[in-house]
């Protein structure tokens, strides 16, 4: 019988293919379908829609390849993964009566898929860091950046992914207004880089286990409570004040900043209006 | 004497340099000059105009290099081709009294140049596929994508080419609203990839011959009839309905989709108004 | 004692690290802080501000790496330079009471820093050319382009640098409306490429010396006189008329072109209004 202390080790040896990868594709393409205007694009130009879906699913791979001067089309060489993701795309967008989409919008199933997607995030971060370490020996900043790009690529390139669908929102991007998954991925990339360089007194499989638990728990919690409050908000506020002297008093960030302020602090209220708002945010946060 | 069955073989051994390449440069730069606002750019900033012209001529090379992680400036190493294209650019844009531009706008000459440009397309597609096959052994999706990018690069990067000239149209791109040359190139890339992997019961030189004939004939026909109806429209409609269940009834695509619907189905009517419209489309379609 | 003829040789052996590099970072980040809206970005999202600052400091490296198909994140491997630039960024943006920014806005200090920054430009151009020559043996056009990109990268990618800060100005770019530093860098790249290929009857260290003197003198002169007149304007006008037949008579370039015309010819008048205008231009010209 497996003992408790062996759980993290076994967990860190989990293989992502095919089930976790599949969950990642499903969660990503569901998030894409929730974007405004995507359904029209899927009717007008299936190819643009497919390309958008591939950027949602493989954006991390594309971005980290670009950063390391490697072929950004490399992900197309994994034929089976592409077929899997394309099947999901086809079923989610073109299934008669939207059966597949409705089916996965059923909360327990949605939770399962979203939780499994978060597991793949940890694997991608560590993959990215290991790969960067091979290309640039001991350049810790490159390790952080590539790990981050690999884990949160779909979010970071969202401006250009939207451009494929004919949408252009230059006034915002994931560096200006970081969403929770992108922030959590950045923290993960820093932690795993520190661990990789042996600055952290923790074994790799334990960190993998704890970080994944953290990701999954907060993801599920945010989906259940429909609350967009980032669990990182207090730390951010403290660090922001300490390092950059920014005191986000309500009176200060009234005009332009108001949306970004609400963005990470408003919880769901029992009213129809807020309900929809939170739902939209949820869609966006799924990355 | 050469017999008839030898024609395709000899044809497939044609060398593109210098005459066909030259025709490609002329046709591309004529198409650039027909874009709105380019003449002002050519006066204000010859360098931006030159760079735009180079992207029109070598866009396929730039895009496929980017995709394969190779230097996108590689095309600048072919000094003679650059000099040729630059001379064409200079003569088309700055020749006194626009002699060169007017000369090539003379229909028979324009037809010749446009037809020869289509021949280079076949060569580029097969070059791209062969190159992708060397970099990624047997990754058929990469072969299709790189062949497509190489053959229709100028069109696919048009958003960024326009940005060089200070024009930004995020609401459209060649994936959302594919023009006929880009579609034909995609089909060619698929066919040549299938042939390369020996799934098609046809010899390479025969496919080269037939596909080029197809490209040239429809290009010339579209220019002569000033009709923008894509010869692929019926197949597209059938496939769209079969795969994606899209039934483009006139009532459905009234609002936003109307332009894209007209785009590929309106023929020239003997009226001044339509005449100009078709002319503009012609310009755009030349890619 | 060092004799006069030895000065250029010793000068060309100057090491950029750490003092000249530091001056480059300071001048670049001061220029960034003068951009409209940056201070708000620095409060709202320090990370976007930091990334913008890095693009200002290392834009040339990023752009030339992209052009040569090398990892654009390579600059992050120079940990000490990144730490230096990040410290400058932190002090300029977040120092209490803006002490550091005010301190370097003191004219003599600003002149010193700006002059030293121009020295690094020469070194970057020659580095870029030497690197391109290794990758592409004897491709003079690639040498010019990479040398130019390396020396004026921050300016050339300014559209995308602005995008990081949520600003998008597609109607202009450094190819359409070249600023003086970008032009001077282009001329330098051409000269050093000619020298590298031994078409110029001048020793390398002499060219380095003379070109740097030229850069520094005109930079200081433009800052002292607050005059945006490019010293290259007469040559440009002559070449423009000779090659492209453009006669920029005032009546011709009235509408849209007016700004670009003023851009490179208006000097400071003793009036409050012009004073501010020139100041803004100064900020922009610093690249």
Overview of the structural elements:
The structure is a homotrimer of 287-residue chains. The longest helix of chain A is centred in the middle third of the chain and has 29 residues, at 107-135. Chain A is mainly alpha-helical. Chain A is globular, with a radius of gyration of 19 Å. Chain A contains 14 helices and no strands. The B-C interface holds B 40-48, 51, 65, 69-74, 76-77, 79, 82, 94, 96, 163-168 and C 66-69, 135-136, 139-142, 145-146, 159, 168, 170-173, 175-178, 240, 243-246, 253, 256-257, 260. Chains A, B, C: It catalyses: K(+)(in) = K(+)(out).
- The helix-strand sequence of chain A is HHHHHHHHHHHHHH
Shape of chain A from CA axes?
A: globular
Give the beta-strand count of chain A.
0
The biggest sheet of chain A amounts to: none
Topology:
Three copies of one chain form a homotrimer.
Chain A: H1 7-12, H2 19-34, H3 38-44, H4 46-67, H5 79-94, H6 99-105, H7 107-135, H8 140-156, H9 158-164, H10 180-196, H11 204-225, H12 233-244, H13 258-263, H14 272-285
Helix pairs in contact in A: 2-4, 2-5, 2-7, 2-14, 3-4, 4-5, 4-8, 4-9, 7-8, 7-10, 7-11, 8-10, 10-11
List keywords for this structure.
homotrimer, 287 residues, mainly alpha, 14 helices, disordered C terminus
What would a concise description of this structure say?
With 287 residues, the first copy, chain A, is mainly alpha-helical. Chain A has helices at 7-12, 19-34, 38-44, 46-67, 79-94, 99-105, 107-135, 140-156, 158-164, 180-196, 204-225, 233-244, 258-263, 272-285. Chain A is 69% helix and 0% strand.
């Amino acid at each position: 019988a497996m003992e408790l202390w062996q759980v993290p080790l076994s967990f860190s040896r989990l293989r992502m293919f095919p089930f976790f990868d599949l969950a990642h594709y499903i969660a990503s393409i569901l998030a894409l379908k929730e974007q405004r205007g995507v359904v029209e694009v899927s009717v007008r130009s299936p190819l643009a829609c497919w390309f958008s879906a591939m950027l949602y699913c493989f954006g991390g791979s594309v971005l980290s390849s670009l950063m390391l001067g490697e072929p950004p089309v490399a992900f197309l060489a994994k034929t089976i993964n592409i077929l899997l993701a394309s099947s999901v795309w086809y079923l989610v967008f073109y299934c008669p009566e939207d059966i597949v989409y409705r089916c996965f919008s059923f909360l327990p199933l949605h939770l399962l898929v979203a939780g499994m997607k978060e597991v793949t995030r940890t694997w991608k971060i560590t993959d990215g860091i290991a790969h960067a370490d091979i290309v640039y020996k001991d350049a810790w900043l490159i390790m952080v950046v590539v790990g981050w790009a690999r884990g949160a690529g779909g979010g970071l390139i969202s401006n250009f992914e939207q451009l494929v669908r004919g949408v252009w929102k230059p006034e915002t991007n994931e560096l200006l207004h970081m969403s929770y998954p992108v922030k959590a991925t950045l923290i993960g990339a820093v932690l795993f880089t520190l661990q990789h360089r042996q600055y952290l007194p923790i074994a790799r499989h334990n960190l993998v286990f704890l970080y994944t638990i953290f990701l999954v728990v907060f993801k599920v919690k945010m989906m259940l409570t429909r609350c967009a409050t980032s669990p990182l908000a207090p730390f951010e506020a403290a660090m922001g004040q300490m390092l950059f002297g920014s005191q986000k008093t309500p009176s200060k960030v009234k005009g332009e900043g108001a949306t970004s302020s609400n963005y990470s602090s408003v919880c769901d209220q029992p009213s129809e209006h807020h309900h929809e708002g939170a739902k939209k945010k949820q869609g966006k946060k799924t990355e």
